[in-house]
Amino acid sequence: MYVITGATGNTGKIVAENLLATGQKVRVVGRSAERLQGLVAKGAEAFTGSADDAAAMTQAFTGARAVYAMIPPDMKATDYRARQDRISDALSAAIAKAGVSHVVLLSSFGADKPAKTGPIVGLHVFEQKLNGISALNALYLRPGYFMENLLPQVGVVRSMGMMAGPLKGDVALPMIATRDIGEYAAGALEALKFTGKQTRELLGPRDVTMKEAAATVGAAIGKPGLSYTHAPAMMLKPAMVGMGISANVVDLILEMADSFNSGYAKALETRGPENTTPTGLDWFATNVFAPAFQGKAAGA
Ligand SMILES: NC(=O)c1ccc[n+]([C@@H]2O[C@H](COP(=O)([O-])OP(=O)(O)OC[C@H]3O[C@@H](n4cnc5c(N)ncnc54)[C@H](OP(=O)(O)O)[C@@H]3O)[C@@H](O)[C@H]2O)c1
Fold first, then answer.
1. Using an 8 Å Cβ cutoff, are 134 and 99 in contact?
2. Pairwise CA distance, residues 128 & 140, whole Å
C-alpha cells in the first residue's frame, strides 16, 4: 500500500490518482474526510490527520510499501519556517517509527543550499533529516518553479492590466506544471528503483522568463503583448499582505525571489530526457490560467 500526504493538493492528488489507475492500494492523508472523498470514490482509503502530528502520521505510514511526503504550505503562517520544521520533524519521526523503507519527498530546486532561499530552506532541512535515517531509501524530487505560482497574477492582470512580481523579467527559470511532478512521483513510487539517498531535478520542458510567461498567458486570455514588471519589494509587500499572505511568508518569498534573481539558487542538473517534463506553459495558460481568469472576470 502507498501512503500519499498532501493528497488533496496539486501534486498529491495526481500521485494518488495515477497509482489508483494502475490498480495499486492507496491511503490518502489530509485534514478533511470530506475533501478526501473524491479519491475514496476512486478506491483510496482515507486517513485524516495533521502532518505535524507524529503519532497520527506514524499510524498513517504503518504498513506502507512507500510514502509520498511533502510539507504542505500555509501562506498565512506567522512563522513559516518553524511550521515547516515542526512538520518535517513529525514526518521524519513517523517514517522512522513506522519503518518505512521508501520515501519520495517533494523538495525543490535550490534545496542544495542551507540558507538564503526563503521557504526552500525548510525543504533542505527535511532532506537532511531523512538523510539521518540510515535504513531509508529516499528520492528527493527537486522540481522547478511551479506554473501554478502564476495564478495570483489573475488578480494583478485584472486590476493593473499587466503582470508584476519580485522576479526579474529576464531571468529564465525551469517552470513545471504540478501535474508532471505528480506523474513522475507516481512512476517512481510504482517502480521503487531508487536506493540510498538520491536527488532528481524536474525542470519542465524548458526554462522560461517572466516576460515570456506574460506573453504566453496574454495570448491565452486575449491580451496579446501582456507585459511583466519587476516590482520593488517595498511596493510588493503591502500588496501581497493585502492578498492575505502573512508578512513572514512575504519576506520568505522575497528572499527566494532574490536567490533566483542572483542565480544563487539554480538547477544543478544538465537538462536531459530524465529531468525534462512534457507540459508546456502554453498548455497551462490555455487550460488553467485562462479559465481562472475568465472565472474571475465573470465574477468581477
Ligand atoms: N510553488 C513552487 O514553485 C514550489 C516549487 C518547488 C517545491 N514546492 C513545494 O511544494 C510543496 C507544495 O506542494 P503542492 O502544491 O502539491 O501542495 P498544495 O496543493 O499546496 O497542498 C497540499 C495539501 O496539503 C494539505 N494540508 C495542508 N496543511 C496540512 C496539514 N497541516 N496537515 C496535513 N495536510 C495538510 C491540504 O489538504 P487539506 O486541506 O485537505 O488537508 C493541501 O491540499 C511545498 O512543500 C512547497 O515548498 C513548491
1. no
2. 11
**SS3 of 276, please?**
coil
Mean pLDDT computed over every residue of the chain: 97
Q: Answer yes or no: is the C-beta of 227 below 6 A from any ligand 1 atom.
A: no
The pairing of beta strand 137-143 with beta strand 163-165: unpaired
Cα–Cα dist 36/13, whole Å: 9
213 CA → ligand 1 middle, Å? 23
> Where do the structural domains in the chain lie, given as residue ranges?
2-146+176-202
Buried b (16+ CB within 10 A) or exposed e, 210-246: bbbbbbbbbbbbebeebebbbbeeeebbebbeeeebb
Which tens digits make up the pLDDT trace of 119-143? 999 999 999 999 999 999 999 999 9
Q: Please work out whether the CB of residue 54 comes within 6 Å of at least one atom of ligand 1.
A: no
Cα of 222 vs centre of ligand 1, distance in Å, is 31
Distance, CA 6 to ligand 1 centroid (Å)?
A: 6
Does ligand 1 have an atom closer than 6 angstroms to the CB of 86?
no
Is residue 12 over pLDDT 60?
Answer: yes
**Side-chain-side CA neighbours of residue 233 (13 Å):** 10
Which residues make Cβ contacts (< 8 Å) with residue 19, sequence separation at least 6? 2, 4, 26, 186, 189, 190
Task: Provide the pairing of β-strand 207-208 with 26-30.
Answer: unpaired
Helix (H) or strand (E) holding 74: none
Centre a 10 Å sphere on the Cβ of residue 104 and count the other Cβ atoms it contains.
27
CA of 224 to the centre of ligand 1 (A): 32
For the domain covering 2-146+176-202, report its CATH number: 3.40.50.720
The model's pLDDT over 84-129, given as tens digits with 9 standing for 90+, comes to 999 999 999 999 999 999 999 999 999 999 999 999 999 999 999 9
Contact indicator for 221, 133 with CB cutoff of 8 Å: no
